[in-house]
């Protein structure tokens, strides 16, 4: 067997996994116009059930916060719960395990995708140097409305209900999306959070909303079925922070104290603007299962697991075009390349039509 360290069992909190090759959350925009998961999505996830754990794509916790052109899934309506139940049933029938990533887009949303509602954020700062896809074509990101402190308990309650809906939909746990420039990450980092008061200023305040959401999800699931994803260096969606190592250290220590299932750490920056080592402080502060992500090949992933840095590694793009990725890695088979033109297009092309090994 190639890369044997990837294929030993591992426990992430309350999740017992047969291997350490995780599928990272990947937005693919195959839900319907009501944000209801489709039978095509059930087929897609079931094809990839050989992963140690499937982390399902960013899913709207609260209605009215679409950010990906209108076809991302939600988990806030009975129809969406039923649609996801078909997905989890298909994955479980293939022997797989799947958790749902709970998400709020914050300032990365647009009024044209959300019934005219202005996006919300910690501070009235728009994403710059990028555009968003809307029904009217590409548009500049809008200046968001600053959320009031008295509105934030409602955000937390929305995430808690989403966690309960995920339980009803048959998931094996949830992952709180605190990464990539969406709402919880916007509060966490000082490049997007310029507010004062209990949710602004020092990192302990900026992390407050993320941790309140984690606690709310843990009330539903138990902490050992809740994962958290963070990306302290990632510049995607116009993000930055003056001290990403300090952010990493604080969040990791707080999550360690809570005993969550795993911390899912994105180690680098999509945009190439920000550099640094966030893995070392995360590993030092978080004694639980650390999951690595971003740019890992099988050899580097296996070495990091052998060294004790990670419990598992999450692979993204490779899972798009290789539905049987763990099997391919185990035998050293070549990997197919994905087609970026079909990442977000409707239908099965570039989604469920990538073949497995003969």
Helix/strand layout:
Elements: E1 10-12, E2 15-17, E3 21-23, H1 39-47, E4 53-60, H2 78-93, E5 98-103, E6 120-121, E7 131-134, E8 137-140, E9 145-146, H3 152-168, E10 174-178, H4 183-188, H5 203-206, H6 208-221, E11 226-230, H7 244-258, E12 262-266, H8 279-285, E13 289-293, H9 298-306, E14 312-315, H10 317-321, H11 325-331
Parallel strand pairs: 3-4, 3-14, 4-5, 5-10, 6-9, 10-11, 11-12, 12-13, 13-14
Antiparallel strand pairs: 1-2, 7-8
Helix pairs in contact: 1-2, 3-6, 7-8
Describe this structure in words.
- The structure is a single chain.
- With 358 residues, the protein is α/β, with parallel strands linked by helices.
- Strand 12 (262-266), helix 8 and strand 13 form a beta-alpha-beta unit.
- It has an eight-stranded parallel β-barrel with strand order 3-4-5-10-11-12-13-14, surrounded by six helices.
- The model has no long low-confidence stretch (mean pLDDT 96).
- It has eleven helices and 14 strands.
- It has one domain: Aldolase class I (TIM Barrel, Alpha-Beta Barrel).
- Helix 3 packs parallel to helix 6 and helix 7 (244-258) runs parallel beside helix 8 (279-285).
- The longest helix is centred in the middle third of the chain and has 17 residues, at 152-168.
Keywords:
globular, 358 residues, TIM Barrel, alpha/beta, 8-stranded parallel barrel, single chain, two-stranded antiparallel ribbon
User: Quick one: biggest sheet?
Assistant: 8 strands, parallel, barrel
CATH class: Alpha Beta
**Helical fraction:** 25-40%
Mean pLDDT: 96
Instruction: List how many beta strands DSSP finds.
Output: 14
Quote the distance from N terminus to C terminus. 18 Å
The coarse silhouette is globular
Classify the secondary structure makeup into a structural class. Answer: alpha/beta
CATH-defined fold name: TIM Barrel
Total number of helices = 11
Strand order of the largest sheet: 3-4-5-10-11-12-13-14
Radius of gyration: 19 Å
Q: In what range is the share of β-strand residues?
A: 15-25%
| CATH homologous superfamily title | Aldolase class I
Low-pLDDT regions: none
Oligomerization? single chain
- Topology as H/E string? EEEHEHEEEEEHEHHHEHEHEHEHH
CATH architecture: Alpha-Beta Barrel
């Amino acid at each position: 067997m190639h890369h044997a360290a990837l294929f030993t069992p591992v426990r992430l909190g309350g999740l017992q996994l047969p291997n350490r090759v995780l599928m990272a959350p990947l937005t693919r925009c195959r839900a319907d116009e009501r944000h209801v998961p489709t039978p095509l999505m059930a087929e897609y996830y079931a094809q990839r059930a050989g992963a140690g754990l499937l982390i399902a794509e960013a899913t709207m916790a609260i209605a009215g916060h679409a950010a990906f052109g209108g076809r991302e899934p939600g988990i806030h309506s009975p129809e969406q719960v039923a649609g996801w139940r078909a997905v989890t049933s298909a994955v479980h029938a293939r022997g797989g395990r799947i958790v749902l990533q709970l998400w709020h887009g914050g300032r990365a949303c647009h009024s044209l995708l959300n019934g005219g509602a202005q996006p919300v954020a910690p501070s009235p700062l728009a994403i710059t140097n990028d555009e968003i896809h809307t029904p009217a074509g590409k548009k500049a990101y809008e200046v968001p409305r600053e959320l009031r402190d008295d509105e934030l308990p409602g955000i937390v309650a929305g995430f808690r209900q989403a966690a309960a809906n995920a339980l009803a939909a048959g998931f094996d746990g949830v992952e709180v999306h605190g990464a990539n420039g969406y709402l919880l990450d916007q509060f966490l980092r000082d490049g997007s959070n310029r507010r004062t008061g209990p949710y602004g200023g020092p990192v302990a305040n900026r992390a407050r909303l993320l941790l309140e959401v984690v606690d709310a999800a843990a009330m539903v699931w138990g902490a050992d079925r809740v994962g958290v994803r963070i990306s302290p260096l990632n510049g995607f969606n116009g993000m930055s922070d003056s001290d990403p190592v300090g952010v990493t250290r604080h969040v990791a220590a707080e999550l360690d104290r809570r005993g969550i299932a795993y911390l899912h750490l994105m180690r680098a920056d999509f945009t190439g603007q920000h550099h640094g080592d966030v893995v070392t402080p995360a590993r030092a502060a978080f004694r639980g299962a650390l999951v690595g992500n971003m740019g890992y090949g099988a050899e580097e992933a296996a070495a990091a697991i052998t060294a004790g840095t990670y419990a598992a590694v999450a692979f993204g793009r490779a899972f798009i075009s290789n539905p049987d990725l763990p099997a391919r890695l185990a035998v050293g088979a070549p990997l197919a390349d994905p087609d970026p033109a079909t990442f977000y297009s409707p239908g099965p092309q570039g989604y469920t039509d990538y073949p497995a090994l003969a």
